[in-house]
Structures are given as structure tokens and as C-alpha cells.
Design a protein that fits this description.
Blueprint: E1 2-5, H1 29-33, H2 57-62, H3 77-85, E2 91-97, H4 103-113, E3 119-123, E4 141-144, H5 147-157, E5 161-164, E6 171-172, E7 182-186, H6 195-200, E8 203-206, H7 218-233
Parallel strand pairs: 2-3, 2-7, 3-4, 5-7, 5-8, 6-8
Antiparallel strand pairs: 1-4
Helix pairs in contact: 4-7
């Protein structure tokens, strides 16, 4: 069985806000994410506020220090999610979660940055949100009890599963086929993907390396693969 944690329901000519200078567990990243970015109250006070339902009156009054791009400054969270939903990419991101890996939050953050359709957590329901820097609030997250449940979901959705691991038989991603609609499946730091996950995959890809280390950080690998998908399809 699976269950989706789905946020509620395009970006037109919105009023332009002032811009930045830089253009489970509690979400520990929120304070860090807002420490150096943000804008103050909308200039001119309430009389100057834009007449647009996407804008959050509390943010207009007090300022917006969230970790969002300038185009979404002062928008409500629901409005941002609804706008993202209009243009999400057709690739999904799935992550095995058996050890409460710190990398999961960072992978979720990258999934948001590259506009994945949905994130799938396989295994333990509680996952380490620290690296997500609050981006999971803008991302659809679905939980699957185990690999079998996840594989059944992917099969029903008609989505091929592309596992990412440097195991025997894996194909360098720069030479591999990455379908436009697919699920990119990532393992954990250290053990990588479970044998069950690799067995459930349609194909397995790896990232070509040139140094002495056998593998790179799981979150870094996920970002590389997502970028490669976007380079081809976005």
C-alpha cells in the first residue's frame, strides 16, 4: 500500500517584488535557509500591496525570508505549489530509506531544484529532513513500505525504473538511455541500492569517475543524474 502526501492545487504577469542581493525530524535547515536571503515588507505599506490572490498578506506585511527564488517572493506556499504543479517534469525520484540516511534530505532538495514530479520514500516512513532545507513543503512526497510496493506502483503508473549504482552491468549515464517519463532510483550512502531494488529496475546506470574513490556521495550522485535528465529533456 502507498499513500501520497500531496500539497493542495501559471505564473502570469505578477507584480514584481523587490529582489535579493543574491538575485520527521524538525526541519533544521529552515533557520539556515533564511539567514542570508530574503526581502523586507512590501514597500509602500498595505495601500501598495498587489491585488493578486497568490500573494500572502502576512508576508507582504512582515517580509519574506524563505528559501525561494525571487519570482515567488511573497507568494503563499499553496500558490507556489500550484504554480510548480503546472510545469513539473515527468521524471520521479525514489530513495531507499533503511538507515535514516542524512543524504535523503539533500536529494529531496535537488528534486525540488530540478522540478521532479514526485519524490518516493521506500522503507522507513520517517526520513531525515535536515538537508531538504524546507523544500519538501513544495514537493509531493509518497511513501512505500518496501521495494515490492514501490515496484507495483511504478508498474501501474507505466514508469520504467532507472536505478543508479556502480554495480556490475551498469551503463555510464552519459551513454545510457534516460526515458523522458521515468523513476530515478537512488540508494543510501555506503550500501547503495539493495539487491531487491536493482532487481526491480528496468535499467541500471552509473556516473563515470576518474579518481581513486569507488563512489561519490549519494546526494551528489543524485544531483548529477537529475541534471543529466534535465540536460536532455527540460
Amino acid at each position: 500500500m502507498t499513500d501520497a502526501e500531496t500539497p493542495t492545487p501559471s505564473q502570469g504577469d505578477a507584480a514584481q517584488p523587490p529582489t535579493d542581493a543574491d538575485g520527521a525530524e524538525p526541519r533544521q535547515g529552515e533557520a539556515a535557509a533564511t539567514a542570508t536571503h530574503g526581502v523586507g515588507p512590501w514597500p509602500g505599506g498595505p495601500d501598495a500591496w498587489p491585488d493578486d490572490p497568490r500573494y500572502d498578506r502576512e508576508l507582504l506585511e512582515n517580509g519574506d525570508t524563505r528559501n525561494v527564488v525571487d519570482g515567488y517572493r511573497y507568494w503563499s506556499m499553496d500558490a507556489i505549489v500550484a504554480d510548480l504543479d503546472e510545469k513539473r517534469h515527468p521524471f520521479h525520484v525514489a530513495i531507499e530509506n533503511w538507515q535514516h540516511d542524512l543524504n535523503i534530505g539533500s536529494i529531496v532538495r535537488s528534486a525540488n531544484a530540478f522540478l521532479a514530479a514526485e519524490v518516493h520514500i521506500i522503507g522507513k516512513r520517517r526520513w531525515n529532513r535536515r538537508g531538504a532545507m524546507v523544500t519538501d513543503r513544495y514537493q509531493h512526497v509518497r511513501h512505500h513500505e518496501d521495494v515490492d510496493a514501490f515496484a507495483a506502483w511504478a508498474r501501474d503508473a507505466g514508469l520504467p525504473v532507472i536505478a543508479v549504482d556502480n554495480v556490475e552491468g551498469s551503463v555510464p549515464v552519459d551513454r545510457a538511455e534516460l526515458p523522458e517519463a521515468c523513476v530515478l532510483l537512488f540508494g543510501q550512502e555506503g550500501p547503495g541500492l539493495s539487491p531487491e531494488a536493482i532487481e526491480a529496475a528496468t535499467g541500471v546506470v552509473e556516473i563515470t569517475q576518474y579518481g581513486s574513490t569507488r563512489s561519490i556521495n549519494a546526494a551528489s550522485a543524485a544531483a548529477v543524474i537529475m541534471y543529466e535528465w534535465c540536460r536532455r529533456w527540460a
